[in-house]
Amino acid sequence: MKLKRAFYTRDVLIVANELLGKVLVKKDGRKLFSGRIVEVEAYDGRTDQAAHTYIGKTKRNEIMFNEGGYLYVYLSYGVHYCCNVVTGTKGIGTAVLIRALEPLEGVNMMIRNRFDKNKLVGKELKQLTNGPGKVCKSFGIGKNHSGVDLTKDKIYLENALLKKNEEIGVSKRIGITKSVHLPWRFFIKNNPYLSGY
DNA sequence: CCACGGATTGGCT
DNA sequence: GCCAATCCGTGGA
C-alpha cells in the first residue's frame, strides 16, 4: 500500500526513522524500479546549517518548503543527483535524504543506468545503490523529477515493516561541513547495501 | 561580474 | 588515502 500524505507531513526526524524499510518505487512507462530504503539523513532548515533551506527560500530550494510528500532533487558537486523526501507542513523546509537502497525490482535496468553495461562483476551488486548519487543514477532520477508528488503514481513509497531481526542505527551525517555533530543519520544495522562508511 | 565551495563518486598513487 | 570532475547557487564587488 502506497504511503499517504499524512505519513510525510510529520516531523522530519520521525519520518526519517520510519522511512527505513519502506520501498521506493519509480514507474517510467513500462519500466519499473523498486528498492528498500536502508539509509537516510534528516535535514532541518530551522536549526541545521547543513540544510539547503537554512538560508531561507530561494529558487533552488523552494521544493523543500512544500508540505511533506514531494521529491526534492538537487545536483551535488556538479556531478551527481541526490533525492530527498520533503517532510513536515508547508513553509518549514525539512527533508530526508535517501542515501542507500537494497535493490528489489528492475535490477537489470539499474545496472544499465549506472554502469552502462548488462552484467555485473564482483561486488558490483552491493555498489549499485549504496550512496545517494548511486540511487538516483540507478533509478534514472534527475532534476526533472524535483517536485514530483509522492502520493501520485510516477514515484512513490510502499508501506513495509522492518524485518524481525533488524535494528536501527544512528550516527552523524556523512560528507557535510556544517552542523556536523547532529546525530541525524539513520540506517538498518548490518545491512549489506549501506553506503561505504 | 567573478570567485568560491559543496548532503559525491571513482580512479589513481 | 588523495584528488579531480563539473555545475551552479550564492554572496560580495
Strand tally, please?
8
Largest sheet: 8 strands, antiparallel
Number of helices: 4
CATH superfamily: Methylpurine-DNA glycosylase (MPG)
The helicity comes to: 10-25%
Walk me through what this model shows:
The structure is a single chain. By secondary structure, the chain is α+β, with helices and mostly antiparallel strands. It has one domain (5-188): 3-methyladenine DNA Glycosylase, Chain A, CATH 3.10.300. 15% of the residues lie in helices and 29% in strands. The chain contains 4 helices and 8 strands; from the N terminus they run ααβββββααβββ. It has helices at residues 5-8, 12-19, 107-115, 132-139; strands at residues 23-28, 31-44, 71-76, 80-87, 94-105, 155-158, 168-171, 185-188. Strands 1, 2, 3, 4, 5, 6, 7 and 8 form an 8-stranded antiparallel beta sheet that branches. Helix 3 (107-115) packs across helix 4. The mean pLDDT is 97.
Observed structural traits:
alpha+beta, 3-methyladenine DNA Glycosylase, Chain A, eight-stranded antiparallel beta sheet, 8 strands, 15% helix
Topology, pairings included?
Layout (H helix, E strand, L loop, with lengths): L4 H4 L3 H8 L3 E6 L2 E14 L26 E6 L3 E8 L6 E12 L1 H9 L16 H8 L15 E4 L9 E4 L13 E4 L9
Helix pairs in contact: 3-4
The chain binds a DNA duplex (13 and 13 nucleotides) through strand 3, strand 4 and helix 4.
